[in-house]
Design goal:
The protein is α+β, with helices and mostly antiparallel strands and 704 residues long. It contains 19 helices and 26 strands. It starts with a helix and ends with a helix.
Length: 704
């Protein structure tokens, strides 16, 4: 390694470039800008206003915020579903006057006052929901009309009951507790707002109803096409909005005990500013309770601070308008350009140097040949992408299909095929357990078992999360191959934690070591990661000692061995460190050796590019993905080797004329069965001098 190469390698090891992309990919990154704005507001006004952080000031502001935040949460719910509610200010005023009328004039008990007030707000929301959701009227104009009508109703109630309300004396501690009481050291309105925010957060992020709301806001047509009741969902959001607005009005009535013609005027603008400033999208489909809370705190601090500084109400409105305009501009630009920017920084290549490629000519053990030319095709043009192939004790063939099926070809002639199971995701590596059930890795879904009765059971779709990982690496993105230890433990590989099934070639461009091997113990139901930072691990095979397994790292072009039991437990050693191609699945051979699939052959251009991370980064940013440098995956090869790494033989399909792009092979009763993730067939090759009675299940479980 030259000095320059050493410096480049050190630079990409010392500076984790990929962290920027991982941070920008997080959902909570939308909260970063609103949070920074909030910090700036606190810092500016905190330095300008004396006693800004005094206990009295904070307590008074907190009570106001509790009421205001409910309005912002109400508006957020509607916005997430793709609508808008301009009537929240009028509904707030209606809740205020109704609550005061019921408690002062009608003399109702507090529980009935609360129920009646919330019912009035829900009724306003229901009207909006019916008009916007079911009659499909435009939300902006509809809620603007509702604003005017509700405001007129409030004015009529004021004319009739304002004198009675002003002259009444309310003898109820429970009533005053809402406006003046504290719970756990916090004003009651703040506690109520926090509880509502938590409930909405859980509802939007963890419940079916919340997912329906987000889906409706993202695309109403798509939501309808997948069976979501869009009209009902929209209607429900307006009912929730009206109820929360009325609740805010009730708390306001309890705190001040009076009603005026100007109550709630302009609150819809302040609430809208807070919702958008917090990061809730006006276009729908993107928002959260946390964003609403951040925005409401920011706007409340701004309004309160300007009042304390003696700024006129006109200037207040001007500032809010300017803030709203800026927030909308940021929201639109961020939504439009986020994924574009993320695509430029997320792919983060690093320095990687492969050992010199062994020769494939002359007397080399890897010398090219045409030994795969006689391979016969099974199921030609009847299957699509059989990444792995496996046979049971009755000689039936099982392969995964791109459409999410596991297809079974029935012995002995394999002309009849059936769908053994529909798993939904992309079936990859497979293995038979001792009880005859079929275990399968499904890309994007995890590890599953298919019983003899064809029942599909999820074993695991997550593992322990890394302590210092920015992304949530507990969820399995690309589980791709597995094997079973004698005690039933399942060891399986996850090729990459950064990319999905359809993006797996991009991991080669990075060559960062995003893969890992995971152990699932069905006896305890636990799953844990045993090896990290592997270069696309893609092939696992138990050795005959029952204490270790072989695994392939595709981009590293090597095969290694890991001891999970015995005196060497926890150690890894290289078995074949310098393959001429990219290894995939590994499986046992009848003579105690192992078969290895090479999915493609190394090229000098890509080998050189792996030592040039800057070049690969520029390529990813400036060149279309279909023009990136990739491995040569058009020439299929199968290698047989022993546990010491000695190459016994190689079988090539030079030029890819008969069975290109080999990803797996299984020996069974004297034949080698071959699969390929881009192929449309299963290959079968007669093996010379192989044991005609040997099968994989017998080798593992010693069946007679």
């Amino acid at each position: 390694m030259t000095t320059f190469d050493a410096m480049v390698r050190w630079r990409y090891r010392a500076i984790p470039d990929h962290l920027l992309g991982e941070i920008l990919a997080k959902r909570w990154i939308d909260n970063a800008i609103p949070l920074l704005i909030l910090i700036a507001v606190v810092a500016v006004f905190g330095s300008m206003i004396p006693d800004f952080f005094s206990a009295a000031s904070v307590s008074n502001l907190a009570r106001q915020w509790g009421e205001f935040s409910l309005l912002v949460l109400a508006l957020m719910v509607v916005m997430v579903a793709g609508g808008i509610d301009l009537s929240v200010g009028s509904t707030f005023a209606l809740g205020n006057i109704v609550a005061l009328s019921l408690i002062s004039v009608a003399g109702l008990p507090v529980p009935m006052v609360v129920a009646g007030t919330l019912a009035c707000g829900a009724a306003v929301g229901l009207v909006n929901g019916l008009l916007v959701g079911y009659l499909r009227l435009r939300a902006f104009l509809t809620t603007l009309v509702t604003l005017i009508i509700v405001r007129a109703i409030v004015d009529m109630l004021l004319m009739k009951y304002s004198v009675a309300i002003a002259g009444a004396f309310i003898e109820s501690d429970a009533w005053y507790y809402f406006g003046e009481g504290s719970l756990l050291g916090l004003p009651v309105s703040v506690v109520i707002s926090i509880v509502v925010a938590l409930v909405l957060h859980v509802a939007l992020s963890r419940t079916r109803v919340g997912w329906h709301v987000l889906a409706t806001g993202g695309s109403r047509r798509s939501a309808h096409n997948v069976g979501i009741k869009v009209r009902r969902t929209i209607c429900v959001t307006y009912v929730v909005s009206g109820t929360l607005s009325a609740l805010a009005g009730l708390l306001f009535a309890s705190r001040l005990g009076g009603a005026g013609a100007d109550t709630g005027i302009g609150l819809e603008v302040s609430a809208l500013t807070a919702a958008v400033l917090g990061g809730n999208s006006l276009g729908g489909g993107r928002g959260s309770a946390a964003k609403a809370v951040i925005g409401s705190i920011t706007v409340m601090l701004m309004i309160n601070s300007m009042v304390r500084m003696g700024v006129t109400s006109g200037a207040n409105s001007l500032l809010l308008g300017m803030v709203l305009l800026a927030a909308v501009a940021i929201d639109v630009r961020w939504l439009k350009n986020r994924h574009k920017f993320l695509s430029k920084v997320y792919v983060s290549p690093t320095y990687f140097e492969l050992p010199p490629a062994p020769s494939t000519a002359g007397a080399s053990v890897y010398a090219l040949n045409d030994r795969l030319r006689p391979v016969e095709a099974i199921g030609l043009n009847r299957i699509d992408g059989p990444e792995d192939v496996i046979l049971d004790g009755d000689d039936n063939i099982y392969v995964g299909n791109r459409t999410g099926d596991i297809v079974r070809f029935l012995a002995p002639d394999y002309t009849t095929q059936e769908v053994f199971a529909h798993v939904g995701g992309r079936p990859l590596g497979m293995a038979f357990a001792k009880d005859g059930s079929l275990l399968v890795c499904i890309g994007g879904m995890g590890l599953y078992r298919i019983t003899r009765d064809r029942e599909i059971v999820k074993l695991t779709d997550e593992t322990n999360r890394s302590w210092f990982s920015v992304i949530d690496d507990s969820r399995l993105k690309l589980a791709d191959d597995l094997d079973i230890a004698p005690d039933g433990r399942v060891f399986f590989s996850e090729a990459t934690i950064r990319y999905e099934m359809h993006e797996w070639p991009v991991d080669c461009l990075e060559s960062r070591g995003n893969g890992r091997i995971i152990c699932h113990d069905p006896n305890t139901g636990t799953t844990r990661t045993v090896i990290k930072n592997l270069l696309f691990p893609n092939g696992i095979c138990m050795t005959h000692d029952g204490q270790s397994f072989l695994f392939a790292e595709t981009w590293a072009c090597r095969v290694s061995r890991y001891w999970f039991d015995g005196s060497k437990k926890g150690t890894v050693e290289a078995v074949i460190p310098d393959l001429p191609g990219y290894p995939d699945n590994i499986n046992r051979a009848s003579d105690g050796t192992y078969w290895l699939a090479l999915v493609g052959i190394r090229t000098p251009s890509l080998d050189l590019a792996l030592k040039m991370p800057g070049f690969r980064r520029r390529m990813a940013r400036r060149v279309a993905p279909d023009e990136w440098l990739y491995p040569n995956i058009n020439t299929g090869c199968v290698v047989r080797f022993d546990e010491g790494g000695r190459i016994i033989e190689t079988l090539w399909d030079f030029g890819g004329e008969n069975h290109p792009m080999i990803t797996s092979m299984r020996e069974h009763r004297g034949h080698l069965y071959i699969g390929g993730i881009l192929n449309n067939r299963v290959g079968r090759l007669k093996l010379k001098d192989a044991d005609p009675a040997w099968t994989g299940p017998d080798s593992y479980w010693r069946r007679s």
